Structures are given as structure tokens and as C-alpha cells.
């Protein structure tokens, strides 16, 4: 059984080895990784990992399609051998970690719990900043343990999912959140389930990208999403640019909608021993170890450079002044949704 993770990265070498080690422990067998315009050695690290037979590295240096950097990479991936040969596929970002709650916490255990599934939605659980200011070279999954409540009522973006799907020809193309270009003759046999193990209705097979919010979505599996990191890391993320909306600089709106820190969730650490063993093996390679340390040094140096520029210095100052995000009550969320529906249904004139 081939489980393929597809990843797009830029200037993420300091985080890449942990991400790879964790997902090897989860049960992914293959990795197709696209890099673009890296200054921190991410592309060189991926070249080394490719030479070691651990990933397939593709440089995604442009030009880019209208949908942006990540869309361009996923569009190209459809015709590549790792995708053609995969049994199951999951496009991910480097700040997303699969966290399985059933069996031995691996992909085969998840499929055993949902034997009829041809697609499984992995709903985000957002992990907030929790007051971390400076970047430290420590595993993300052990540094950030404060998360959003298991049930959120707002915003809908907090309930977005990524899709683990069987590569059986039902979908011809990869998508950021869900597979695209369905084969209408095969859709009848598509069986979508959510992270609670609930069978999903037919509309999920063609056009949904977020789970119904205001209810639990994580009993069997969740996608730990660490979109912020330390404040220093977030400034570098703003400098790096967005993979989808690359012309939009990250600011406080993105931060506030994701900086939930009300609950403690350390469940991903059940695989910490296996992840650490994989990480130790990776860092035993002298070239990978050196590239990792160079990336850590680069991040520190780049942050000092950015603080000399007003947009980034102002952003860092605002982060220091902004408290953790307060979850919206169910009543307030209903009020917002009501007016959102009014706006959607009103005459645009």
C-alpha cells in the first residue's frame, strides 16, 4: 500500500525534517515535494533527501498559473509517477500534521476503522501561538500544545479540511483541500467519511472544503494545524508569502482567526518516540544535519534583517500587543451566520 503526501515549501528547511519524520511514523511511504525560490537551503535539503530515496523533489520555479504557486505544483503533480503509483494521496502543508486517534495512530489503523471509505476529510484543529515570541529549534508538535476548542462556532475557516483519498480514478487532479476533476461515471461509488467516522452526503464528493462547524469533527482523526508558530516565525512567514494567495501579505486578520489557545491537546505526541527515532536517523546524515543548522541560523539572521523594515517591524509590534483569540459564542456565531446568509441571498445591486 503506497500512501503519498504531496507538499509545497519555501524557506522551511528548519521545520522539514520534523515534518518528514512525523509523517513517516504515521505511515506515509512516499513524498512528492515541490520547492520554489528558496534562500534557506530548503531546496538543497530536498535534493539530499531525494538522493537518499526518501522524497521526490521537484523545483517549482515558475511561471505560475493564475491559481498561484501551490495550484501550479498540484496541477503538475497529476502526471508524475509518484501520483500515478499511489494508492492513497493527501496534499499537505509543512505546518500540518496528521493526528490519528484510533488503533496504533497510523494510516492503516485509520483505514481499518473506515473500511468503506474512498475519501476521508481531515479537519483542522488550530494550534495557537500561546505567547511564544522568539523562534526556538524545537519540534513544533512539542512546542505548541494550546489549541482551539474541539467544537468551534466561528469562523468557518477554522473547520477547513484536507482530504485523504483513494487514487482509484474517481478524481483526475489534486487540489489544495480536496481532489478535483471528478469522473462522473465513478462518483456513484465514492464514499466520503469525516474525522468522526460519519458518512458524508453527496455534495462532499464534488464541492465542499470545510466541515460543518459547531460540532465535533475529530474523534478518529484530526489535522493539527500550526499556522502561526512563534511571533518571530510569523514575521518570516509574512516575508515568505502565501502559497495560495501569494500577492496578499499576512497580517493580523490571518493571525486573529487562528490564534486559539484555550485547550491543551498533546495527543499528537503519542507518536513522539517513533517520530524522534525517525528524526535521529535523518540527522545522523551529516549533510542533512548541517543543512538543518544552517537553516536555523538563516532564520535568526533573516528576522533581524526584517526588523529594520517598517512593515515587518510594525507587524511584530502588533503581534506583541495582541492577546490570544477569544472563541465566539454559539449565539454570536448564529448572528454572524444569519447576516452572512442574508448577504449571500440579497440582490447584488
UniProtKB/TrEMBL annotation:
Pfam families for this protein: Glyco_tranf_2_4
GO cellular component, one term: cytoplasm
Major site of localization recorded for this protein: membrane
Subcellular location, record wording: Membrane
Residue ranges that the Swiss-Prot or TrEMBL entry lists as coiled coil: none
Topology term for the membrane: Single-pass membrane protein
Domain of life assignment: Bacteria
Annotated keywords: Membrane, Transferase, Transmembrane, Transmembrane helix
Record flagged with keyword Transmembrane: yes
Gene Ontology MF term list: glycosyltransferase activity
Protein's name in the database: Glycosyl transferase family 2
Organism (species): Thalassovita taeanensis
